[in-house]
Amino acid sequence: MSGALADFAGILAVFLLANILAGLVRVVRGPAPVDRMLAAQLLTTMGIAATLVFGMATGAEGLLDVALVLAVLAALVAVTFARRFHGTADDDSPEEDGDD
After folding, report:
1. What is the pTM of this model?
2. Which of 1, 43, 48, 52 sits at 20 to 30 Å (Cα–Cα) from 66?
């Protein structure tokens, strides 16, 4: 890797680390489960980016596959969270009042 590209990868790694630290603070402090979930999504996104940068810097092409798997898992986690805390789209049926 050339000197300029190595410098850029280093600066990018520091930026990603700062974002990960900010996400960790939000996961710990909350205040709501939605805030924590969004912070976890930020951590996943930054982890994927860090994996890609590390793969680019070292020339390890296998890390691209790892980043792809992390992205798919992150999408599944987001869908699962949304269904658990906000219901599903199938809940559109009218509720019964019990006023017969």
Report:
1. 0.69
2. 1
